[in-house]
Amino acid sequence: MTAAPDVLLHRTTVTRAEQHAFAAHGHVRLPGLWDRALAGRIAAEGRARHAAAVIPRRGPRTPVSACRLPARGTPAAGGPLLARIHRELTGAARALTGRLLVPTFAAYGYYENDDEVFLHIDTEQCGLTLLTTAFGDVGPLHVHPGLTGSTMERLGALESDPAWDRHGGTRLTYPDTGVTALDGHVLPHHRPGRRAPGLRAVAALCYRPLF
């Protein structure tokens, strides 16, 4: 007799209210996808995989002025637990968007001493991005519906402008036992950054339309 597979997630469906919120705003919180025990396993894997993290060769690169160039990129690493969660949330991703999405990549992104993220839109691999805090104290993401349709050059010009309000936009936090879904390829977003000692990580799970 074959043993029943280990069930990771509490739910892999979305409600109509969540569908409507995502359609209206391009983002929505999806809490209660897993329990705190799984949150602990995600944190443990994220910490363990830090030693294998590398700076991705591909990804959004905001063209900023020389004075705003980051000292270092954001190292990233995958892991088998995160990969399984990625696969198991495919149905929820499709139901949320009404699109035939397929998984592209899932990774822990590591921030040491500062969790700043430049203003950008995600690549085409991220027709939908699901985000959660893997471990540590990560500040809210700020999204900018008013900048929808902007080129990366336009976003880079704003990021380079000292007068641009880095604390503006709509603040998004991540649920403790779930994700915040983001239409990241369309909706510009950034994190202002907070300088604090220590390592922290965000897990990102991306999907693209099959057609």
Account of the 3D structure:
The protein has five helices and ten strands; from the N terminus they run H-E-H-E-H-H-E-E-E-E-H-E-E-E-E. The protein is of the alpha+beta class and 211 residues long. The strands form two sheets. The protein has a six-stranded antiparallel sheet with strand order 1-8-5-10-3-2. A four-stranded antiparallel sheet has the order 4-9-6-7.
Topology at a glance:
Layout: H1 16-25, E1 27-30, H2 36-49, E2 76-77, H3 80-88, H4 90-97, E3 101-114, E4 117-120, E5 128-135, E6 141-143, H5 152-160, E7 170-172, E8 179-182, E9 189-191, E10 195-209
Antiparallel strand pairs: 1-8, 2-3, 3-10, 4-9, 5-8, 5-10, 6-7, 6-9
Q: What is the strand arrangement across the widest sheet?
A: 1-8-5-10-3-2
Give a count of the beta strands, DSSP E runs of length 2 or more.
10
SS strand fraction: 25-35%
Radius of gyration: 17 Å
pLDDT averaged residue by residue: 93
- Terminal CA distance reads 39 Å
| Weakly predicted, low-confidence segments | none
The biggest sheet, with number of strands, parallel, antiparallel or mixed sense and barrel status, is:
6 strands, antiparallel
Secondary-structure class? alpha+beta
Percentage of residues assigned to helices: 10-25%
Please count the helical segments. Answer: 5
- Shape descriptor: globular
H-E string = HEHEHHEEEEHEEEE
